[in-house]
Amino acid sequence: MEMTLESVAPAPQPTLQRAVAALHARYGSGVLREAHELSAAVPPRFSTGFPTLDALSGCGGVPQGHLTLFTGGATSGKLSVALRSLAAAQGRHRRRDPVAVLDLAGTADPQSFHLAGVDLAHTLFIRPPRIENITTLLYDVLNVRAWRCLLVDGVGTLRTSPHQLHTFDAALPELMRVVRRQRTALLLLDDAGQPGDATAHSLSLHMHFRRTDWQLSRHGGIVGCTTRVQLERSRWARPGAHCDLTLPFP
After folding, report:
1. CATH number, position 179
2. How many domains does the chain have?
3. For the segment 223-239, what is each residue's pLDDT rounded down to a tens digit?
4. Reduced to 3 states, what is the DSSP secondary structure of residue 98?
5. Angle formed by the axes of helices 162-182 and 134-144, to 10°?
6. Cα separation of 242 and 205, whole Å?
7. pTM (two decimals)
8. Is residue 163 part of a domain?
């Protein structure tokens, strides 16, 4: 049987396939992987104080050198978890790691921090009298030393000043460069369920808190609450999962 040249010639390869074949031939088959095979490297981190929440995050807790956002309304439990996270960030060794708290809401109670296990001697509290120049203040705090964690409570107050919110959004990329260089965990607390565009773009981890029940004593007094934590975003896990936490009051 006579075969034509057309019937035996190899089918032409697309440009991408030829490029992949050339790279494999020169550097080996392991040089390239498909995008779905890649996963973000797990960074240094510290625990939230709750093993189930650490597992939910996908990275084992609060990541250093990254932006983490806790959202949820009042009594949702986000502050309680943030305080336990600060205590974990300081470590259990004698020489505690320093942490800082920027109290934009003006409601931080050092006694609550102490009862949550935070070492106040190694905690810097900052309560600006006005929200003007918050971005400059935040930048200076990040640069003054390598904090293991910087907690910013009351991010929603920036929305009361469109100028401050715009300034914060514009400065966030530069702030994140400092965060990555210092390996500081930047932890924001906000009552709003959804972050702004600039925050959302820089986020590595976002958890939303919603109180589902109160914990009552035998005499009917409120001694804690149960909250559901929803994973809204994570560089290390698929969003949508949730866990339930029981948070005792100090």
Report:
1. 3.40.50.300
2. 1
3. 999 999 999 999 999 99
4. coil
5. 10
6. 14
7. 0.83
8. yes
